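User: Teach me something about this protein's shape.
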Amino acid sequence: MSTITELMKIAVVGSVDDGKSTLIGRMFHDSGNIKLDQLKDLNNANSQRGNEELNLALFTDGLKAEREQGITIDVAYRYFYTDKRKFIIADCPGHFQYTRNMVSGCSTADVVLILVDARNGITEQTRRHTFLASLFNVKNFVLVINKMDLVDYSQEVFESIKDEFTDFVSKFSLNNLSVIPVAALAGDNITKKSERLSWYSGRPLLDYLENIYVGSSENYISARFMVQRVIRPQAKGLEDYRGYSGRIAGGVFKPGDEVQLLPSGFKTKIKKISTYDDPDISEAFPSMSVTILLEENFDLSRGDVIVKLNDIPEVSQDVEALICWFDERSMNPNGKYIIQQGNMTSRCMVKAIDYKININTLHREENNKDIGLNDIGRVKLRTSQQLIFDTYNKNKRTGSFILIDSQTNQTVGAGLIK
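Assistant: First, the predicted structure itself:
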């Protein structure tokens, strides 16, 4: 009997109408993961729209506004499984104004499927999504050239798009790229090989996803514990209890470990580690939520970080980062914002905008420092209190942040510390 192993997180990105929702619906349908009640709802929604054939895109486009407009607005998450693997798949919006939602979907992905319409080839949005996804250090990428049925399953069209995309990504780092031709609407090369794509010698898409190796994106070496709250029960017998609860952001912690408290710099040892279910565990690792007791009492608060002595993160009020801008109003070169990094929230100021990245050429535009909606640029920030951080490539949780407009309380940007 087959055993279902491993969980793979997939993000599907691409331009509007490239067929992302249809592709996902087809994967669910052909792998037997659409239940009878879901199929009934799909048929009802399909008949209301007057479609003669079943529109599998409706399976993921759950919002009323999405079904009315025929585009994906929010990130739609779906779960399915095969005999070999479990999957969580995120259907990310392709429309330009919803790039922030696409960033959210890619930030935790193990594999990113970059969908391209074979008729249109590589677009500016394809380049934007690919470059953004590459910044999140995703381990595997698949260029899925869709709608091959609309170009007569042409190998020449496939090779042309493949060459153009390969040339584009050669300008930056992209991990483990594969290229697969499909026709999602017709079901070609999704769960089984298609005779109409006989010139393609590789595996169909689902077979590829079932067998590709997925390593952990967690850092199990650099120990990081981000304090979320201090627990003081004040109950009888627990008057002196002081526990620090939060989430392990990296490394492994054990009772007896020598640790340093940041930003204060005090050193001590771990006395005990507890979880909700177990009052005394032998070790804690990412991404467990635990309570740590120290051998001595210290005045720690939300946003402080406990680390091991052999690997200390940066502690500074100055930080340099790549930022993707989400607001319709451009970034103010001397603007003041709220920065939220992990459990720490502080005020910050934009000290400098170094350059903006041209998404088509990937050139640094040092003379164009207008960071507008969906632009990507490198900036220098100064925070009102010390920030405890690593580079994003070392630790995603301590190396990323968001910027918030203090007047509207809206998230205006997402940053990766470089």
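Now, about its shape. The first helix runs from residue 20 to 30. The chain has seven helices and 19 strands. If you'd like, I can walk through any region in more detail.
User: That's plenty for now, thanks!
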